[in-house]
Amino acid sequence: MTRRALIGTGAVVVGAGGLLVAAEATGRLDDVADAVGIDPKPQPDPDDTRVLRRAARATAELQAAVAATSAGHPGLDLAAVTAAVGEQLAALGGAEAPAGAAPPADQGAAVDALAQALDIACKDRARDAVTAGSPALVRVLAAMSAGHAQSARVVRSLR
Amino acid sequence: MTPTEALQAWLALEHEAVWLYPVVGARVDSLVKTARTSFAAHRDTRDSLVGRLRSRGTSPAAAALGYDVGPLTNADQARAAAQSLEARISAALLTLAGVAEDDLRAYAVRALRTSALAEQTWGAAPRAFPGLP
Q: CATH fold of A46-156, please?
């Protein structure tokens, strides 16, 4: 079964962050819905839209933290974590991250800081999953939370 | 799928885990400790699920006599079987999370995190969306 099939509505929701954010920004929700074959046209739950935006923003910040840690400590193998967070952010439609603080100069401290950031993201997405309205969005957020937990374990293994 | 059906699907996989890990431990010396830990965790989860289903007035799904998990003659095969099972549990939990509400949904989300970490314990690479194929 493909990821698209699993989440049913869909493909739709993993594309969903992008869909909703882009649609809101451009006012072309019907066009976007047509593109992914949703019929009737969705009326996004405003609360779910807020959850998606918050998740996308937080994931962009996480991606920036991973990139900064990787740049500051090139000896750390963060390829798997970089790939996972990048895939998550793409599924949410992307977002801009504000400039973040540089990682600690000490490599061990940098590892701890990144693992802690992933722990926080894990808890936040789990909380979002519990309160989200759309079942498909619930699944995406719950899976993201579990993915963050896996990434945190990878990072801690580098200590 | 109803929440009860999703719980039953999860329970069926927990039965399989309670069957699998003793077999792994018995056949692969290097995995005894990990298999023992996994067995205990899944036994506790199975018992918890049985209780939850009974409290819903439902008869819990019964265990099978045995499961076809492929050959288990070396560590690589055992790890592959364990990863496969934990990944199927993750998928079942994601289904449950999508159909459940409130406390049951929170329970499924927590359990999904546990099963995703169990996948890793048995050697799986990290994924962006554990539970999704």
A: Ferritin (1.20.1260)
**Helix, strand or coil for residue A2?**
coil
How many interchain CB pairs under 8 A, A with B?
101
Class assignment of domain B3-121? mainly alpha
Residue A17 binned pLDDT confidence (cut-offs 50, 70, 90): very low
Query: Measuring CA to CA, which residue among A150, A144, A149, A146 is closest to residue A16?
Result: A144
Tens digits of per-residue pLDDT, A70-95?
A: 999 999 999 999 999 999 999 999 99
Residues of A with CB under 8 A from a CB of B: 1-3, 5-7, 14, 80-81, 83-85, 87-88, 91, 122, 126, 129-130, 135-136, 138-140, 142-147, 149-151, 153-154
Instruction: Confirm if A23 and A44 have CB atoms less than 8 A apart.
Output: yes
Token reading at A50 = 């807020």
- How far apart (Å, rounded) are the C-alpha atoms in residues A27 and A154? 40
pLDDT at A111 over 60: yes
In chain B, domain spans: 3-121
Q: Measured between alpha carbons, how far is A149 from B127 in angstroms, rounded to an integer?
A: 10
